[in-house]
Specification:
293 residues, mainly alpha
């Protein structure tokens, strides 16, 4: 009893975090898993359906597979250019001849803290099919307009450009921190040994930066699989006329709050969790093999 009184105060001090986590974190996760095996419209009684939601999802729902395909294509279009540009920006910010580095870091990081809704609305004015700024510029130079919203390919490009603009600076700051952590003695020794800039990059910089690059790949993969706000604001909750912008999370939202199929939406959420888990596992295996673990 005396021991309980001794530790009561510290436990009470940390209890708000655990209470909030249980109420707003753990309980929704467990409830969504329970809900995935039921049919429920949000108001009436729940009906246990077993694996029917998952079976329908995998065998009878072409929109689900379309959303999976769209999500992967947008991830591919956005992640590779984004990380490449971030690496280039990081190298420029780390260069000795660049002045006002703190200012540039703030400028590149600014898109990440800007309201994504505001960003999506602004980009919507750029990519408008009829009166968009980009189409206006294309007509000025004599090129045909692009159906950004109505074309299934170009809508993916538009969403990908939004993602690239928002996250390039964020990843560049991470890469910059990695570059600054590499000891300069290694470069000095390589220079004395006659190594060129190219050899230093591939023999020193890239191997030491590899864990950070893989870290950003994993983060970009998780974020890309959960893409929601950008396509929602740009093309609406249906993914556009051709459903070219229909992502997994947007489809989940549509089923839950558009069709009131909360059980089915929960099944989509757990399929999304499975996809992200598989990607994370593959990246972890790749990192472990690369480090010889």
């Amino acid at each position: 009893m005396r021991g309980l009184k001794t530790y009561l105060a510290p436990y009470l001090m940390i209890s708000p975090f655990y209470i909030l986590f249980i109420v707003f974190g753990l309980f929704p996760i467990l409830f969504s898993l329970y809900l995935a095996f039921h049919s429920w419209d949000g108001l009436g009684p729940m009906e246990f359906v077993g694996l029917r939601n998952f079976r329908n999802l995998l065998t009878d729902d072409p929109d689900f597979w379309k959303s999976v395909s769209n999500t992967f294509i947008i991830w591919f279009f956005s992640t590779l250019p984004q990380l490449f540009l971030a690496l280039v920006v990081a190298f420029l910010l780390n260069a000795a001849f660049v002045r006002f580095k703190d200012f540039y870091r703030a400028v590149y990081f600014l898109p990440n803290i800007t309201s994504i809704v505001a960003v999506a609305i602004i980009f919507g004015s750029f990519f408008g099919s009829q009166f968009g700024l980009i189409n206006g510029l294309l007509q000025v130079i004599g090129l045909p307009r692009i159906e950004w919203i109505n074309d299934p390919f170009w809508v993916k490009v538009a969403v990908s450009l939004m993602v690239i603009w928002r996250w390039t600076g964020y990843n560049a700051i991470i890469y910059l921190a990695g570059l600054q952590s590499i000891p300069h003695d290694l470069y000095e020794a390589a220079t004395i040994d006659g190594a060129s800039r190219k050899q230093q990059f591939f023999s020193i910089t890239l191997p030491l930066l590899k864990p950070i690059i893989l870290f950003t790949v994993i983060l970009s993969t998780i974020g890309g699989m959960q893409l929601f706000t950008e396509p929602l604001i740009l093309v609406g909750n249906t993914g556009g006329a051709t459903k070219g912008g229909l992502t997994l999370v947007l489809y989940l939202y549509n089923q839950a709050f558009g069709n009131q199929l909360f059980g089915y939406a929960s099944a989509i959420a757990w399929m999304l969790f499975l996809i992200i888990g598989i990607f994370s596992f593959l990246n972890w295996k790749f990192v472990s093999r690369g480090e010889g673990i």
